Amino acid sequence: MKRLTATLTAGLLIMMGFLTAVTASAEEGRRYSVTITNLSRGQVITPPVVISHSPDFELFTLGSPATPELAALAEDGSTAPLLGFLATLPTVLEFTTAAGPVLPGGSVTLELNTVGPFDAISAVGMLATTNDGFFGIRGIAVPKNGKKTVEAEAYDAGSEGNSESCAFIPGPPCGNAGVRDTASAEGFVHVHAGIHGIGDLVPATHDWRNPAAEITIQRIQ
Fold first, then answer.
1. Model-wide pTM > 0.85
2. What's the angle, vertex CA 91, arms to CA 212 and CA 139, rounded to 5?
3. Cα distance between residue 81 and residue 147, in whole Å
4. CATH number, domain at 168?
5. I need a labelling partner for 129 at 20 to 30 A (CA). Which of 109, 178, 210, 221 fits?
6. DSSP string spanning 137-197?
């Protein structure tokens, strides 16, 4: 009887150790690099923000108003309000932002972790020579191994009118941040209609055709 009890105890300990190892492995998580390439010819992308999150997080919803934090990024490239907001959300695991802008044809690579249900990536950055335009991807499932490349369209936050007036545009050649033109704001996020030359901007220089950016998500650990 003692021998049987010892055998059962040993078996139970081995099983517990196996289950602990499986749980630890499941919670270990993965690390990814996210490379953002600016595909436009004449739009600077302000320092982009990359987020790892659960499927319950939505950076924006087409046809609905942008959050104030997203609007601040789309209008002026300001990341601080969005980063502060993300830090309060239980649906967000990690977020990071680039140290500087991404010039036309240029790229930047950021790294962050995923774990458990936090296995989706979103990214956003302003197209600086617009009133409130931004590139964005939402809820892209990370690859278990290797890499995945997706294209990012340009969206309009709908928080400013598209006057194309330098008085309200932070990017070159304008340089006027922190000034809003809300008189004809659409009020909802939608696919950006581009630059039409109705103000100070030149379509031949500042317009683009979607996609505005390319994003490559690669597992590195």
1. yes
2. 30
3. 30
4. 2.60.40.2130
5. 109
6. EEEEEPPSSSEEEEEEEEEE-SSS-----GGG--STTT---S----TT--SS-EE-----S
CB 123 within 8 A of CB 49: yes
Residue 110 located in a structural domain: yes
Q: Is 133 helix (H, G, I), strand (E, B) or coil?
A: strand
Query: Structural domain of residue 142, as residue ranges?
Result: 30-219
* 19 found inside a domain: no
* Residue 59 domain-assigned (yes or no): yes
> What's the CA gap between 100 and 210, in Å, rounded?
23
DSSP code at position 67? P
User: Per-residue pLDDT for the chain (221 aa), expressed as one digit of tens each?
Assistant: 444 344 433 343 333 333 333 333 345 789 999 999 999 999 999 999 999 999 999 999 999 999 999 999 999 999 999 999 999 999 999 999 999 999 999 999 999 999 999 999 999 999 999 999 999 999 999 999 999 999 999 999 999 999 999 999 999 999 999 999 999 999 999 999 999 999 999 999 999 999 999 999 999 99
Residue 191 lies in a domain: yes
Secondary structure of 185-218 as H, E, C letters: CCCCCEECCCCCCCCCCCHHHHCCCCCCEEEEEE
Residue linked to tokens 């609007």: 71
